[in-house]
C-alpha cells in the first residue's frame, strides 16, 4: 500500500492551485537528478525541515549534502499550509505529556516550540526573505461558553508549569482588537505570527541555491536500497549514493519507501479557502480587521486570518477522502462553515480552494531522530498541523544531532523516543474516520 489516500493527491504533477501559488514570485526550477551522484548525507524532501537540515549541514558543519525533491521546493505541506508560524506541534495536551514523559521533557518541549517561532523570524530577517509577516501571537476562540472555563484553567497551568503568560479576552475585548464574532471569548498566546508559506519556502530554496547546496527537483525516490554501509536512492533518471539519509517528507511519505517508516505515519487532510480582497465597508460590517492568527476551540478546528492584501483565509480539518469527487464536497462543507461563522461575508466569493496533508504519529507528538537501527538513517517529521515553526527548527536540530553537536545537550527524549507503528497499520484510515465522527459529535454536543 503506497498511499492511504487517492494516489492523485500525492502525484508530483498535482500542484495545489492555491492563493500562495498565484501570489508568490516564480523561481527558476531545480534540475532533476539524471546521473549517478554521491554525497555524505542525502535528504529526501525539500520542505522546511529538509532544506533547513541541508542548510545547516553544509553551511554550518561543512557536510556535503544533496536534496531530492519529488516535484519542486514548496510543493508539499510547506507551500500549502495556512501560514501559521506558531506553537502546537503535538496533539497531546501538556498535562498528558507530563504524565507520559515527565515534567522535564514537557518543559523542554514547550521551550523548543517557543524558540522555533523565534528561529523562523530570525532566519527571515537575517536572510532578507520577504514572507509577508503579520500579527502578534495567536488567539484561540471559545466556540462554546463552557470553553472559557477551560481557557482559565489552561492559562493558570501554563503560568505555573512553564512561567508562560497568556491573556484571556472577553467578546468585547476581541471586538476592540478587530476580532468581532459570535465566539464567547478567547485566549491570546503572544508567541506566533502569520506569514506567506510559499514565499518562505521559495526564499529558503533560493538561499540554498546561492550557497551552492544542491537540490534535485522532479526527482522522486522510487527505490531506497542498501549497498553495504551505503544507502542508494534511485530516482526516475539517476541514483544518489550516501553514507546517511534524512527523511523529511512528512505527510507526503510513500508507505513503501522504506520498511523503517512503514505503518508509522498517518496523513490527515486539511482544507483552505481564500476570498477575494474585502472592501473596507465589508471589513467594517463584519468588524474583523486584525491580522492576528486565530483558530477555534473545536477538536476539528477551524483556523483563519486576514491577509495583508485584504483577503480572508479560512481553513479546517476533518477530511478523510482525497479523491477529486470528495474535493468538491469538502469545498462546499468548508464554505458553509465560513458563511456560518462570518455571516456578514456570506456573499463574498472565494477565489481559491485547496487541500494538503498534515502528518500524525501514533503517539501524537513529532519525531526527530534516528530511523534505522544502525543510526545511518534519520527522520524529522509529523508536526500535527503546526510545522512552519517546528519543522524549520527540527531541520537544524537534526543537523546538529547528526554531526554530534547535540550529543551532550541532546533533544528531549520524547522527540527521539522509540518510533512505534500504529496498531494494525492497514486500518489507520478507519481509525481516523471513526475518531472524526466522534470529534464532530463532541465539538457540537459535549
Automatic annotation (TrEMBL):
The keyword Isomerase does not apply. Residues 41-400 form the FAD dependent oxidoreductase domain. The keyword Oxidoreductase applies. Keywords: Oxidoreductase. InterPro entries: FAD-dep_OxRdtase, FAD/NAD-bd_sf. SUPFAM superfamilies: FAD/NAD(P)-binding domain. PANTHER family: FAD DEPENDENT OXIDOREDUCTASE DOMAIN-CONTAINING PROTEIN, SARCOSINE DEHYDROGENASE-RELATED. This is FAD-binding oxidoreductase. It comes from Kiloniella laminariae.
